[in-house]
Amino acid sequence: MASSWLNLENYSIPLEEINLATDNFNPQRCIGGGGFGYVYRGQLSKHWQDRIVAIKRLAKDSYQGEREFRNEVEKISGFYHENIISFLGYCDEDNEMIIVYEYATNGSLDHHLKDQNKMCCITWIQRLKISLEAASGLNYLHAGPGEHKSVIHRDIKSANILLDDNMVAKICDFGLSRSGTKSHPSSHIYTKVAGTQYYIDPTYIESRILRKESDIYSLGVVLFEMLTGMLVYRPSRIGEDNTKTDSLIKLVRKYYPKEPDRLIDPCIKDQISSRSFDTFKKIAWQCISYDFKKRPTLDMVMKRIQEALDIQLQENVSAHFERIGKDNGFNHGKPVAAFTIYKLLLHPNYIEAEKTKFFERLLQIFVTADKYQISNRGTEYWLSCASNLLFLIQRSLKLDAASSVQEPPPSTLAEDEIVEQVQVRNQVLHFKDQLTKYLEYMCNIIFDDMKKELRLLLALAIQVLEF
């Protein structure tokens, strides 16, 4: 352990730097706290690229002593996953126990759950993605990152799921986590019960045996928080006896069997399809089973949430296409369908849901519309849509190219994300080419019709002159 601690010297940040970053731990810089101590928002100096960070200062009388602090630092320094908060450094000068993390702009998930206005801004699609990302981060821990066989977090809750500026979920706070080393591969550990009330696995409380399934139970609680838009210890809006119920999970167990729809957050009721809801609620329900053997694996949790997300995206796209396919007229002189399509193109999730079919369906809308509306106002409308859409796409591509020259993609961007961006861009370029050909084709038809009409008019004029 001593040798591994020595290997972390490169991560050591001087206390003077920490004091400058937090303005000597100014209370106004505090962004969170609890039994462990407090978390501050700070900005490091140029030596650390002026980076905005979260600085966790453990209290001397917290449940984490020096040994636990060192164990946590050693552990998290080996975590590298997009859904695990990034470790940047530590400070142990003057008996301080300080850990420095990346700063998550949108704070913790529980802050959104506490504020109904904030939670209503998180769509069902976003909630599914956050749920999937949290499960992905937890799966990474259970699989055995670094030198550890596996890591059981032991305190999964909405307060320990942070959201970055893109609303990507990142698991944090590993003060209570336990790990099995290569010499101790057991999937369960006998230990003193620790965690947060309402999120703790009941079987763990009864047996004092910590298992991976204990984390899955806690994740299930978070999934129901996402569905209902409520914190587990602040249930509301469900039933008439809210004041008598101190736990969301009690309400879930009451209403799930016969009235599961009552569990849906009213803010997302018009966003959630029955199939997506059914898929999500079933896997969340399995997670909170009293029998740990009946709880699903994290691979299964991720698979089912991904299914719920795909179903919702596909149904959203279908609904949009249904609206686009109709002649929606003009709004302030702009063709409605063109701008609706453009908004869809700005959201890669929709494209990803349909793969290449997305663009095929868009082209089909134009072709079908003109097939049945040729020689009437419909043709004019769809030509206007196509030309406006072509202009919007071309402008976006130029702006995107200019910004990429000024600001190259960050080196931290995952390779698969870069590949996905390139693929989407290539699909958009192909769609632009097809749309251009469509416009050329329609213009040629119109010009041919105009030539025929002009010939008739010319012939008529000649006849009149001869007469």
From TrEMBL:
The keyword DNA repair does not apply. Pfam families: Pkinase. The keyword Aminoacyl-tRNA synthetase does not apply. SMART domains: S_TKc (SM00220). GO terms for molecular function: ATP binding; protein serine/threonine kinase activity; transmembrane receptor protein tyrosine kinase activity. Residues 25-309 form the Protein kinase domain. ATP binds at K56. GO terms for cellular component: plasma membrane; plasmodesma. Keywords: ATP-binding, Kinase, Nucleotide-binding, Serine/threonine-protein kinase, Transferase. InterPro entries: ANXUR1/2-like, Kinase-like_dom_sf, Prot_kinase_dom, Protein_kinase_ATP_BS, Ser/Thr_kinase_AS. Belongs to the protein kinase superfamily. PANTHER family: OS07G0166700 PROTEIN, SERINE_THREONINE-PROTEIN KINASE UNC-51-RELATED. This is Protein kinase domain-containing protein. It comes from Lactuca saligna (Willowleaf lettuce).
